[in-house]
Structures are given as C-alpha cells and as structure tokens.
Design brief:
Largest sheet: none
CATH class of the largest domain: Mainly Alpha
Distance between the termini: 44 Å
Number of domains: 2
Strand content: under 5%
CATH superfamily of the largest domain: lambda repressor-like DNA-binding domains
Radius of gyration: 15 Å
Structural class: mainly alpha
Helix content: over 70%
CATH topology of the largest domain: 434 Repressor (Amino-terminal Domain)
Shape: globular
Length: 131
C-alpha cells in the first residue's frame, strides 16, 4: 500500500474511533487538547492533530499507543486496520473460539455494518460496566 493511501486509511480509522468514543472527528483543536491531557510525552500541536485527521501524517508508535488506549481500540487496528492478522500470540491465546469466530464474521461485513456492530458492542460494554 502506498504511503498516501496508508495515511488516509489511518485517518478514517482515527475518525471512526473518535466518533465511537463520542469525540468530535472533525476538530483538531479538541483532538490535540484531549490527547495532550492523557499523554505524558511531548504534547501535540493542533497542526499535528489536523494532519492526523486529514491523512497527511501518522503519529509515532508511542502516540499511536496513547491514542488507542484513550479511544479503547487495538493499537494495531488503529495503525494498520487489521484486528486478527496483527494479534500477538499472547493476545490470540486469550481469545476463545467464539471470540475468533466473532472477529472473522465482523471482518466479512461491509464498513457500514462493521460500524453498527462496533456501536452495539460498545453499548453492551457500557451497560455491563454499570452493573
């Protein structure tokens, strides 16, 4: 995949993760502010956040990990877009066969239905945490 497409695909995943986390996917100012509150390293500028959202750059691995943790998504998914292809052996050994089947099924869906499934799972997770 060429670098420009890779950056644009990252941008789409970042915007989707922001939306799913009920953050604005269109505000570099809000992204920079919320990210910097959670990140112990060198803060990012609004300009850098805009470049992430516009698909002009991809953050460093350290910043990717912080973004993924904040947005509650796998770091590999945020960076590369794949869930199961990039699971470490430790991660995959903790998945049940039902989890693996669910991930495989999810990956077969079109983007719209994937987003609906993610929203549904997030809703169930919130309900579960409140109990």
């Amino acid at each position: 995949m060429n670098a420009q497409i890779e950056r644009l695909e990252f941008s789409k995943r970042l915007q989707q993760a922001l939306h799913n986390a009920e953050q604005s996917p269109n505000s570099p100012t809000q992204l920079a502010r919320e990210f910097n509150v959670r990140f112990a390293g060198q803060p990012v500028t609004v300009h850098a956040a805009r470049k992430w959202l516009q698909g002009e750059s991809i953050p460093t691995q350290e910043k990717l990990r912080a973004l993924a943790e904040w947005l509650d998504v796998p770091t590999d998914w945020l960076r590369f877009g794949s869930i199961d292809a990039n699971l470490s052996k430790t991660q995959s050994s903790t998945l049940s066969s039902l989890d693996t089947k669910a991930i495989a099924t999810l990956q077969q869906l079109d983007e719209h239905h994937k987003m609906l499934a993610h929203e549904f799972i997030r809703m169930l997770s919130r309900i579960s945490k409140k109990k």
